[in-house]
Amino acid sequence: MIIREIMASDAEKFAKLTPQVEASSEYMLWEAGERNVQVEQQLKMIKRIEQKENSTILVAEKDNNKLVGFLMAVGGNAKRNKHSAYIVIGILKDYRGKGIGTNLFEGLEQWAFNHNIHRLELTVVTRNKAGLSLYKKMGFEIEGTKRHSLFIDGEFVDEYDMSKLL
After folding, report:
1. Cα Rg for the chain, rounded, in angstroms?
2. What residues are paired with 73 via a beta bridge?
3. Cα–Cα distances in angstroms (integers) from residue 116 to residues 54, 96, 165, in the given order
4. Parallel/antiparallel/unpaired status of strands 141-152 and 155-165
5. pLDDT tens, 35-51?
6. How many angstroms separate the CA atoms of 95 and 17, rounded?
7. Would you give the distance in Å from CA 19 to the centre of its chain?
8. CA nearest 68: which of 117, 147, 1?
9. Could you give all domains of the chain from N- to C-terminal order, each with its CATH number?
10. H helices of 24-156, where?
11. CA 102 to the chain's CA centroid
12. What does the alpha-carbon distance between residue 166 and residue 163 come to, in Å, rounded to a whole number?
């Protein structure tokens, strides 16, 4: 397993990975099939992120060059929040629970240290036990609850705001 920063040449693989992750997770923001992910869109996003000193996408790559997970860190745009990055993580269902999330977060911390990022933040559905467990294991703390922030399977659900200071 290799954890590395995404490259423009990964756009096609990333365009395939994103909807696969969304289809296999009940807690991602976008539902399966809700958006049409195109290679060109992914390439533009990758290039935009590459230009930002405080943003990155890390990918988890298997031996056969298959992308099986990602962690996106999007840094703040203003002087007052450039030190902060919002995190989104997604791992293919068959690869969850195998240390990939831990490896992605460890890679993120090294990247953050090298890019003067002081605060990492994310949101997680309160009933997402696996995600919550991973984030707590990686040192994230709950800062608050966003009540009824998402509508999943016919009901409103809460999310935790979580952060980690580096």
Report:
1. 15
2. 56, 87
3. 8, 29, 12
4. antiparallel
5. 777 888 888 999 999 99
6. 12
7. 14
8. 1
9. 2-122 (3.40.630.30)
10. 39-51, 100-114, 129-137
11. 12
12. 10
Q: Averaged over 101-111, what is the pLDDT?
A: 97
Strand partners, 2: 61
State residue 91 phi and psi, 5-degree precision: -135, 135
pTM of the model: 0.92
Tell me the two tokens of residue 134.
């991973």
What distances in angstroms separate CA 47 from CA 3, 13, 43, 70, one per listed residue?
A: 19, 15, 6, 16
With 90 as the cut, is the pLDDT of residue 57 above it?
Answer: yes
Q: What percent of the chain has pLDDT over 90?
A: 78
Q: How many residues does the chain have?
A: 166
The confidence score (pLDDT) of residue 90 equals: 95
2-38 pLDDT, tens digit per residue, is 999 999 999 999 999 998 898 888 888 877 777 777 8
Pair of tokens at residue 64: 């056969």
3-state secondary structure of 55: coil
Q: What angle do CA 130, 153, 35 make, to 5 degrees?
A: 85
